[in-house]
Amino acid sequence: MKRQSSAIDITNMRTSFIIRGVLGGIFSIILILTVKSWLGFLDESSKSASVMDTQNMDAEMSISAAGGQPRSPGEITFDKIVQLQQSDEGLLQNDPRHKLSRKIVHLDLKGMPPKISYLSKLFPLLKLMGVTGILVEYEDMFPYHGSLASIANKKAYTPKEIAQLNGFALENNLEVIPLLQTFGHMEFVLKLESNIELREVTRYPQVLCPSDNRSIELVKIMIDQVMSLHPEVSQLHIGSDEVYYLGLCPRCISRMSQFIGDGNPKADLFLHHVKSVAEYVINKHKKRVMMWDDEFRQLDEVLINSFQLGPLVDIVVWNYKSDVETQLDSSLWGKYKRLFPSIWIGSAFKGADRPDSMVVNEGHYLANHYSWIRTLRYQAPTVDFQGIILTGWQRFDHFSVLCEIIGVAIPSLMSCMTYLTSTRELPMERVFELSNEKLRCQSTLGHCAYPASNLYDEVSRLQKYKLDFERLKSQSAFRGWAHSINLRNQLSNTAIMENIYSDISRIMSELSSLSVSLEVSLKTIYPDWSVREWMLTHFQPTHTEIQELYNSLTRILERITFPVRPFVFNETSDW
User: Fold this and answer.
1) In this structure, are residues 246 and 252 in contact, taking their beta carbons and an 8 Å threshold?
2) What is the pLDDT of residue 99?
3) Are strands 133-137 and 204-208 parallel, antiparallel or unpaired?
């Protein structure tokens, strides 16, 4: 999926929100005391409701009162208190959020799949948030076998583990929808030498050639194998977004020449392939088909209608910006309403900011959901939506580096779900406050109580140390006396170097201390091989740079005298 960036600074945003929320908190306490007196349900020791006990990470993980103990049938839950706090002001008539009865969370498993044991803790939390299902994008983590064995990750889930995933979902009333790319984003298949001939462009392993009969046969085998381990699902998502290269290979060019009088032969290629895949899923596996919408946006309505795709597929209209209403206008919604009886929307709770993001820009993702509700209210008021898919991308594609991982995105997901399940148009700061309370966060900067929440804290610390280092490098003293030419040639003002050395020593010590606990926390959720990649991507480059700087500063500070000009410079790039 395509991702867009945002400049919202969530750290500053949340810090200001907590200050602004003090008065609201005082009001809440007064109102809760009034409720307690009125109903007589709660004793004076009752606390705010909570999501779970982090010590045992129980699968039960219910919102509880009285200091985290299991609540008795007569106690007021956190949700009831929030409901009592709400006044008539801000209540919306015909709130479009009620149209989104199905709320599906996307699990992108590309390159850093959670351990199945972690999913047993995650799924009860998703249920508690109000999530109704999961969209599982296996990519190469599915245990393909036989003629497809080569495309599977060597550490792919086993059939037994997928059965466990299905079981955990069933226990928590979460429907499972597998997502299988069948056109674009086929890198994990087309990167292999054995499949080069199936590429639309020989040099690019992104798009499958729709004119080679072997392509559709490959897709059918993939579908059959995925469905064999998901026989109970009602739907299959066939991807088909961002088909950037089409009509370029000799086979497609020859085929397009036969589309006499067709003003858009490339569109014909796309629609033929998608229809073939959809009909195969429906006819053989009796499942409903979903797909992303972006390739339909610029296509002629008459042409799309001529392929009769409407009865075959549910389209998921996705956009991850904070101004969806300006991106998708009413004419598009009118066209989609006429073409497709079943329409979903696709938002994002992570993975749609920058390709190398390590921490989650929660403000951006929550703003995306606010914008989607405005769009539903004003741009598409007459469209009947099936639900919403909250996407959580882990990479921008098969080859890109890891961006935000699920272990650090739970607060963002909770905020988005808090807004989607609210009966009021709450201000954004109030949504953050409620999500913090539900996760039992001690502050807006972390220290929450949900499975493996310490990972969120440690990644936030790593981000802080990185920012500290960047701020140090931006200072005049560093730019003037710790330039690479100073460091390479051990020539600088030692008085100024001592101050820089002190700051670098502190950051390096903090990073070294963090590295052990961070790696341990990552390994509670993810397999060792993926943790290694994450550390090499997000931790090691900064640690190495600081270590090299520390060594260079040490050598400079060991010097007592310096040479007379003209200096003989070391022109290598090493410090």
Assistant:
1) yes
2) 85
3) unpaired
Residue 260 is given by DSSP the state T
Give the pLDDT score at 94: 74
Using the structure block, give the residue that is written with the tokens 């984003």.
185
DSSP state of 158: P
SS3 per-residue string spanning 28-46: HHHHHHHHHHHHCCCCCCC
The residues, ordered by sequence, that sit 6+ positions from 87 with a Cβ below 8 Å of its Cβ are: none
- Pairing of β 385-392 and β 199-201: unpaired
- Indicate if 242 belongs to the active site: yes
Residue of 242, 325, 404, 429 with catalytic role: 242
Report residue 366 as tokens: 């929550």
Q: Are 41 and 74 in contact (CB under 8 A)?
A: yes
CB atoms within 10 A of CB 443: 11
Q: How far apart are CA 207 and CA 187, in angstroms?
A: 8
SS3 state at 72: coil
Phi and psi at residue 197, to the nearest 5°: -70, -15
| CA geometry: angle 456, 462, 464, nearest 5 deg | 105
- The count of other CB atoms within 10 Å of the CB of residue 238 is 22
Say if residue 75 is exposed, middle or buried (CB neighbours under 10 Å; 0-12, 13-18, 19+): middle
Residue-level pLDDT at 380: 86
**C-alpha to C-alpha distance for 550 and 36, rounded to whole angstroms:** 59
DSSP output for 346-402: EEEEESSS-TT--S--HHHHHHHHHHHHHHHHHT-TT--EEEEEEEE-S-SSTTSPP
Query: Could you tell me if residue 315 is left (phi over 0), alpha (psi between -120 and 50 degrees) or otherwise beta?
Result: beta
Residues of the chain with pLDDT under 70: 1-93, 260-262, 443-446, 572-575
| The token pair that represents 482 in the structure block | 């710790």
Nearby residues of 564 by Cβ (< 8 Å), 6 or more positions away: none
